[in-house]
Specification:
alpha+beta, Aminopeptidase, eight-stranded mixed sheet, 29% helix, acyltransferase activity, transferring groups other than amino-acyl groups, N-acetyltransferase
Length: 196
């Protein structure tokens, strides 16, 4: 599904977002170098949709307006520890009610530097991302998907309260592992509010 408008819904948010230990802010073209430092590492890029071979290739995609409009950077003490994606989308709807489904949900994604693993930064950042989606952006639903062998990612989805909605068998083509199972998680705004 495509983003709902030319202007990113994230443009209306009061930045930066602060958690107990982290600062979350919109990405800039200058963040290409710091995010490339961990996205180029095999344990990270093996699960990402795109694995550019060079910094120039990565920067060419990262610095596009479409990519920057949905990318957030996660910092700890001025050190970039990861990045997040929030792609606001239209929900599927029948034609007669399609207008009511515009911009009501988002697909989420994330990548974190392995040097910062095991400290709870990803969990803290994604919890804040959910708060952003449901409070600041007033979305009704968020989703996240991963390859089934990417256990750290689906465990994170479960830790933050997302529910597994989908398990597909050899539906996802991985660049080195061939056809693998896929998993899809989601959370509704009212579910999130009840759990808080």
């Amino acid at each position: 599904m495509a983003e709902t408008s030319e202007r990113s819904p994230l443009a209306s948010v009061a930045w930066p977002l602060l958690t107990d230990r982290l600062l979350i802010r919109p990405a800039t073209p200058d963040d290409a170098v710091t995010t490339w430092a961990y996205r180029r590492l095999e344990p990270v890029h093996r699960w990402l949709s795109r694995a550019p071979l060079t910094l120039a290739d990565y920067r060419g995609h990262f610095a596009t307006p479409a990519a920057l409009a949905k990318t957030l950077v996660v910092e700890r003490d001025d050190d970039v520890v990861g990045d997040l994606m929030v792609a606001v989308e239209d929900a599927w709807a029948q034609v007669e009610v399609a207008e009511q489904a515009r911009g009501v949900q988002a697909e989420l994604g994330w990548a974190f530097h392995p040097e910062h693993a095991g400290r709870g930064y990803a969990t803290e950042a994604v919890r804040e991302l959910l708060r952003l989606c449901f409070e600041d952006l007033a979305l009704r639903r968020v989703t996240a998907n991963c390859f089934a062998p990417n256990e750290p990612s689906w465990r994170l989805m479960e830790r933050v309260g997302m529910r597994r909605e989908l398990y597909t068998v050899r539906e996802s083509l991985h660049r080195s592992e061939g056809w693998v199972d896929g998993m899809g998680y989601a959370l509704l705004a009212d579910e999130w509010r009840r759990r808080r």
